[in-house]
Amino acid sequence: MTYQAYLDSVKEQTGLTPGDFRARAEERGFLRPGVKAGEVVNWLKADYGLGHGHAMAVYGTIRAANAPKASAQDLIDKHFTAKRSAWRPTYDKLIAQAQKFGDDVTVQAGNSHISLLRNGKKFAIVKVSAARLDLGIKLKGTEPSGRLTTSGSWNSMVTHRVSLTSAKELDRKIFSWLHDAYAKA
Are residues 82 and 60 in the same domain? Predict the structure, then answer.
């Protein structure tokens, strides 16, 4: 059963949404610091007749709503921890150049990659590993050549991919491809 299926089942059984449970948990003092998961789960089982898995799913939504939100910069920084930190100067250079394309360039980090957007429309992504920095670029209609390969199964959100194994490989050609993708976005 998926997480969402658990929540759907709880709503069907109790008529309550995760937001409703959060409000009730707050009324009972379960959102204060130091409250253990077991206390909340036991309350959900006793008062609402939920099974352990369903109670844990509800607890997960309560806990997530109460968790501090990471800043945009924190989300980006997570991509450059440990051995991946060596790629940070290359990434910073790439972003600085992309932002020169226009004031409408923004950067948005997810868990697996960092997106480059123009007016909210993705034109490239960056994925970092210890060994390389992969740049996915949306260049529909452009024939792959040399370092610019098709993205294939690597990532379906982009059409092409360039793998950098050295910071020296970030060159004018890559910036040209990025600019073309930006212009098409």
Answer: no
Q: Are residues 89 and 129 both part of a single domain?
A: yes
Instruction: Calculate the CA 97 to chain-centre distance.
Output: 23
The residues near 144 (Cβ < 8 Å, ≥ 6 apart) are 150, 160
pTM higher than 0.90:
no
If asked whether residues 121 and 44 sit together in one domain, one would say no
Taking the C-alpha atoms of residue 139 and residue 178, their distance in angstroms, rounded to an integer, is 9
| CA distances for 94 relative to 30, 68, 181, angstroms | 45, 30, 14
Please give the Cα distance from 30 to 65 (Å, whole number): 13
Question: In which domain, by residue range, is 32 found?
Answer: 3-66
The sign of the dihedral angle between the CA atoms of 117, 121, 127, 132 is negative
Q: For residues 109 and 99, what is the distance between their CA atoms, to the nearest angstrom?
A: 16
List pLDDT tens digits, range 86-120.
Answer: 999 999 999 999 999 999 999 999 989 999 999 99
Strand 114-118 relative to strand 160-164: parallel, antiparallel, unpaired? unpaired
Pairing of strands 105-109, 121-128: unpaired
The count of structural domains within the chain is: 2
Predicted confidence (pLDDT) per residue in 49-83, tens digit: 999 999 999 999 888 766 677 788 999 999 999 99
Q: Pseudo-torsion of CA 55, 60, 62, 68, nearest 10°?
A: 160
